[in-house]
Amino acid sequence: MESANAPAVIDRRGFLNWAGRGVGAVALAALLQRDSAQGAVAQAPSALTPHWAARAKRAIHIVLVGGLSQVDSFDYKPGLAKFHGKSMAGGDKPDVFFGQVGLIRQSDWEFKQRGRSGLWVSELFPHIATAADELTLIRSMVAETSNHTPATFQQNTGFRLNGFPVLGSWLSYGLGSVNDNLPAFVVIPDSRQLPPGGSINWTNGFLPAQHQGVTFRASGTAVDNLFPARPMRPETEQDSRALLASMNRRHLEARGDEDALAARVRSYELAARMQMAVPEVTDLDGETPATREMYGVGAPETNDFGRGCLLARRLLERGVRFVQLFSGGALGSPRINWDGHEDMKANHSQEARRIDRPVAALLHDLRRHGMLDDTLVLFTSEFGRTPFTQSAANTVGAGRDHNQYGFTNWMAGAGLKPGYSYGQTDDVGWKSVEDVVSYHDFHATVLHLLGIDHKRLTFYHSGIRRRITDVSGEVIRGILA
Predict the structure, then answer these.
(1) Are residues 335 and 393 in the same domain?
(2) pLDDT value, residue 239
(3) How many CB atoms lie within 10 A of CB 447?
(4) Same domain, 268 and 316
(5) For 304-352, what is each residue's pLDDT tens digit?
(6) Of 217, 138, 159, 96, which Cα lies nearest the Cα of 381?
(7) pTM: predicted TM-score of the whole model, two decimal places
């Protein structure tokens, strides 16, 4: 007779509950059979051969949702103060998303030249400013739309429509995984809310399903349903895994190598391996108190994003190819993103306080660990903000509208000119006028640094050889070291 504390023999209902809620345990059924000819599940296709020696082995992508104001952060325009309170020059009314064109407004933050490079960075980001000599600013970005959701899709996929593979999925497909126990592509959403479009922002699109981003939480339970809902005896668990392996094998044999089914089984196998890896990688207590403090872990405003940035570094150390962190959630009120329509100073101050210290810590920490020379850090927003205020009346209002015509992204790390500024906007930061960069160019450059020719990383879908850069895109040679 079993003792009162012994795990019970699993019944039919218990088996179904275990199968549904303990995906890691379910995964082991296929995992245990992986090496046998009869039990093997179709494995993922191997990664493509790099097209040249990669400067970067891995990447972190920090996504600012809502539209960071370039003229209040990284694109210093003395003309804003000179023309403060005046109308935009020219006969045509500027074409903006809400059609409310107020007067030119100077920045609410003081700009200073930083580091040995002398890059101009505003007091909106005083901590990131300390890493100015690591930054490669692209001050001439343009987007194809000023509508948040399609612009966010374009930032991630190169296309304004949803359903296309995101950058992380393309990198998973092209480079494969280094660590069999962790996903190649991990996403850490904003703890407050998902971005516009939700999980479509880390979709594999038409690529094999295994390349979809896997979401982690930086606080609390990192991955849902990774462990069984309740313990069971080892012999019961082993028999249940064997049964499930047989069911999976018969299911695949009956339906052929169907991508969604095979990918699901592979995801269960990965989940089993993650049972061993995830608790260790997400345990930030393994870091020194000084490191946690540097990232702002434990501080009220920076704790969430600080934990995300520190987790991202730990994931990259363990072989994850691409980690994406989102700053900002869905649109609407209250503003928990960078969409500063009503009050730029209040909105951007709120969001910058959450990420400034953690992002700076990430850059300094990667350098300290000797990782920045082969890691690519990306800091992007779907578009920028107007140099004039959003106001129905001819006044100097407090907010700024969307601006697809000129904004700033930056990169840092492998293969780039550090402490460098590329391209420029006009005198007030309204439109890009020199060395204009599209998101196709941006993506082509990211792939290039990771050893991939963007024209050759393709996938046949619906009669077309698809690629993230569609039929355009040029590597930004001027920023390469």
Answers:
(1) yes
(2) 81
(3) 27
(4) no
(5) 999 999 999 999 999 999 999 999 998 876 789 999 999 999 999 999 9
(6) 138
(7) 0.85
Query: Is residue 129 located within the same domain as residue 166?
Result: yes
H/E stretch holding 386: strand 384-390
Strand order in the sheet with 322-327: 214-215, 185-188, 322-327, 58-64, 375-381, 407-413, 135-141, 420-422
Closest C-alpha to 210, from 283, 262, 153: 262
Instruction: Tell me, yes or no, whether 72 and 185 share the same domain.
Output: yes
- Same domain? For 310 and 373 the reply is yes
CA distance 146 to 127: 29
The pair of structure tokens assigned to 9 is 């023999």
Determine the Cα–Cα distance for residues 344 and 338; give it in Å rounded to an integer: 9
| Residues 95, 56 within the same domain | yes
Alpha-carbon distance of 475 to 451, in angstroms, equals: 12
Within 8 A by CB and 6+ apart from 351, the residues are: 64, 66, 327, 328, 337, 338
Q: What percent of the chain has pLDDT over 70?
A: 83
Q: Which parts of 232-346 are beta strand (E)?
A: 322-327
- CATH code of the domain containing 354: 3.40.720
Q: Is residue 215 a contact partner of residue 201, using CB atoms and an 8 Å limit?
A: no
Domain check: are 163 and 58 in the same one? yes
In terms of domains, do 290 and 273 share one?
no
pLDDT tens digit string along 18-44? 444 444 443 444 344 433 333 333 333
The answer to whether the bond into 334 is cis (omega within 30° of 0) is yes
Does an H or E element contain 141, and which?
strand 135-141
Range of the domain at 428: 47-222+282-479
**For residue 407, which of 115, 144, 105 has the smallest C-alpha distance?**
144
Q: Is 349 exposed, middle or buried (0-12, 13-18, 19+ CB in 10 A)?
A: middle
What's the rounded Cα separation, in Å, for the pair 156 and 161? 11
How far apart, in Å, are the Cα atoms of 319 and each of 184, 375, 455?
8, 12, 26
CA atoms within 13 A on the CB side of 125: 27
Structure tokens given for 120: 């101009």
Residues 6 or more apart in contact with residue 110 via CB below 8 angstroms: 122, 123
CA triple 427-338-431, angle to 5 deg:
20
Overall domain count for the chain: 2
pLDDT in tens, 393-452: 778 999 999 999 999 999 999 999 999 999 999 999 999 999 999 999 999 999 999 999
Is 375 within 8 Å of 366 (Cβ atoms)? yes
Each residue's pLDDT tens digit, 134-164: 999 999 999 999 999 999 999 999 999 999 9
